[in-house]
Amino acid sequence: xxxxxxxxxxxxxxxxxxxxxxxxxxxxxxxxxxxxxxxxxxxxxxxxxxxxxxxxxxxxxxxxxxxxxxxxxxxxxxxxxxxxxxxxxxxxxxxxxxxxxxxxxxxxxxxxxxxxxxxxxxxxxxxxxxxxxxxxxxxxxxxxxxxxxxxxxxxxxxxxxxxxxxxxxxxxxxxxxxxxxxxxxxxxxxxxxxxxxxxxxxxxxxxxxxxxxxxxxxxxxxxxxxxxxxxxxxxxxxxxxxxxxxxxxxxxxxxxxxxxxxxxxxxxxxxxxxxxxxxxxxxxxxxxxxxxxxxxxxxxxxxxxxxxxxxxxxxxxxxxxxxxxxxxxxxxxxxxxxxxxxxxxxxxxxxxxxxxxxxxxxxxxxxxxxxxxxxxxxxxxxxxxxxxxxxxxxxxxxxxxxxxxxxxxxxxxxxxxxxxxxxxxxxxxxxxxxxxxxxxxxxxxxxxxxxxxxxxxxxxxxxxxxxxx
Length: 469
Description:
Elements: H1 8-39, H2 44-47, H3 49-72, H4 74-92, H5 98-126, H6 129-160, H7 165-168, H8 170-184, H9 197-220, H10 225-247, H11 261-291, H12 295-323, H13 326-343, H14 352-379, H15 386-421, H16 426-453, H17 460-466
């Protein structure tokens, strides 16, 4: 057993089991939304809270889990995540109304948060700097595998085994992952520091308020009472959080991390990249539906994006170990910009191959960008801060997802209405609104390239010292 715990690639295999669970579950659940709305006799707006609650809870608790991981040990919190995710999946399969699904999904997000915040920390603690990019590339590949097989698996389960089966599949994966992690992942004691409850609470409140404002502000009205309350709550508790973190002896988020240029600009690049990415992934299915593709065929077309990432991400990780993140991430962001600008030229007569080529190019750009960027961020901090660094990275990723969907939806809707006001027919107005949203996402990718370029290059000597080599 001790020999297994010293084999870094075997340790990585245990981490990848947990990594693949979230993307599979998320994509399978999204596929099931229309069916769940029919089964529980509810509308799409109510059903959407199955995903919204999950995303809000996941994003708001990530920093807390990162801090706890640094304190109690990454392995322990990772295993807690596997147990929580598996148990809540079993409970979800027994749901008898839509509200039970929504509430239990919030608790499932607690388990997912533990898994997502600890995986990069375990990998970074296990692998030397010379192989960290490669290992994180395999982690990114696991995410792509989950996103790729999720829609197909979800369609099969819903068709032949019923909606409850989409939650059953998490249970054996979680049990296997827990046992394998217990066997192969080495224990780490964590740091003997006190937990910061007031910082954790204020972070949870300001993140929840911000994400609610971003995701629901368009529905409520940006100047409505609910939107104003959400925005003010965010501002008040964000200020409170910063004050608390400066005053407490052991802050939940060590604000001195932002003095590290690699950390700050790497996370900013992550936020912007996921804003652009989720604008594309949110809007493109509407285009495919408008063209006339079936749901199954649309799923296959959209899969071309994560499938390409599956191949590119590990290769990019290997290259980042040799050449660093600065140039690779910048090139990757520029390629995603080109892909988004090219998608703005799509029409209702575009062939499936032309759409898939653009999505494939987008996958190449994201695959080149993400792994070096993640490796750069995780390599910029000391070992006793890997948990919070991993969690902050995941928070930026999830915030980017919410911002991207909100941004894409707002731009598309407003521009489509503008073009319709000019007496342009509905199909043309649809395409023009979509074009504008893709162009704005492309501009954000260019900004992402700039934030990637201005980061410092990793000083290998300092990097080795941080990792205790």
